[in-house]
Specification:
α3 packs across α7. This protein starts with a helix and ends with a helix. The protein has helices at 3-14, 19-29, 42-52, 70-83, 94-104, 113-132, 175-184, 257-261; strands at residues 34-37, 59-63, 88-90, 137-139, 156-159, 164-167. It has a six-stranded mixed β-sheet, sandwiched between helices. The relative contact order is 0.18. The chain has eight helices and six strands, in the order ααβαβαβααβββαα. The protein is α/β, with parallel strands linked by helices. The chain binds iron/sulfur cluster (SF4). Iron/sulfur cluster is lined by residues 65, 67, 109, 116, 119-120, 123-124, 201-202, 204-205, 230.
Length: 263
């Protein structure tokens, strides 16, 4: 079975299963190493729970940009303590990072979109390439309702840029459903979510959003365009089968911080 056929089969078979069954199916069907890249945000914590609680043979990796919130490092440590498994941290290449900082300054990413993308390329994209080298499957926490571009994905697609089948087990989930899952299973989560941070990335590039604001609004908020991506998620082909489209509740995408405070 080639990559395209595998993506179509997975997209079809993942639909209609709960999250635990989705991850178990992926671990069983993908013929080769599977990597899950976690940002330690809410969606990724739900996926981590489904992977670790079933002791699945999936490598859980995080991109340690060096600019994460202290709260993010704490939830990383708390998660390892809870499940007794390591989350592998990948740091930026030292020489490239030193060149970047020498060239643009420590906070030079604010100068322009190009400067910001250069920083993301060094701190995130290059480490991601290392994380996915040799992998057959890449699991992400992307959801359709997070952005119009993400809505074009599916439960499983081919990512030609990285040469993997990219699996998005939460593609058709609402944020409210993720919140409920984390609450129900008492999964460790980043307390910044309770302070209005819906999407959490690097500290200098993330802010809280107001109730009702789209969640990606809090990322690189000083930029004017609506494509708030860091270059990690650009290479996947459009959906060919499976869930296929954003859930109907997409307009009501942002669970407020208050909902998480009930967790
Ligand atoms: Fe750099 Fe900000 Fe991108 Fe992090 S999110 S890698 S600090 S530009």
């Amino acid at each position: 079975m080639n990559r395209d056929e595998l993506a179509i089969e997975l997209a079809t078979r993942l639909a209609g299963r709960d999250l635990f069954a989705r991850l178990a199916l992926v671990a069983d069907k993908v013929p080769g190493p599977i990597v899950f890249t976690t940002s330690l945000g809410l969606e990724d914590q739900a996926l981590t729970h489904a992977i670790f609680s079933q002791d699945l043979a999936i490598d859980v990796v995080t991109l340690d940009t060096g600019r994460l919130f202290p709260e993010t490092y704490q939830v990383w440590a708390d998660t390892e303590a809870r499940y007794g498994r390591r989350i592998h941290g990948l740091s930026p290449d030292r020489a490239r990072l030193e060149q970047l900082v020498a060239r643009q300054g420590i906070n030079g990413f604010r100068a322009s979109v190009e400067a910001r993308k250069s920083c993301c390329a060094v701190r995130k994209v290059e480490p991601l390439r290392r994380a996915l080298a040799g992998a057959a499957g890449w699991i992400t926490g992307l959801r359709a309702e997070q952005s119009p571009d993400r809505a074009l994905l599916d439960l499983a697609v081919v990512d030609a840029a990285y040469g993997v089948v990219k699996i998005n087990p939460l593609f058709d989930w609402t944020r409210e459903r993720v919140v409920e899952f984390v609450r129900h299973h008492d999964v460790p989560y980043n307390p910044l979510h309770d302070r209005g941070f819906l999407s959490i990335g690097c500290a200098p590039c993330t802010r809280a959003v107001a109730p009702g604001e789209p969640e990606r609004t809090g990322r690189w908020w000083w930029e004017q365009n609506d494509k708030k991506e860091c270059g990690l998620h650009g290479g996947a082909s459009m959906a060919t089968h499976g869930a296929g489209a954003a859930p109907s509740g997409a307009a009501a995408m942002s669970a407020t911080s208050g909902e998480l405070e009930k967790v």
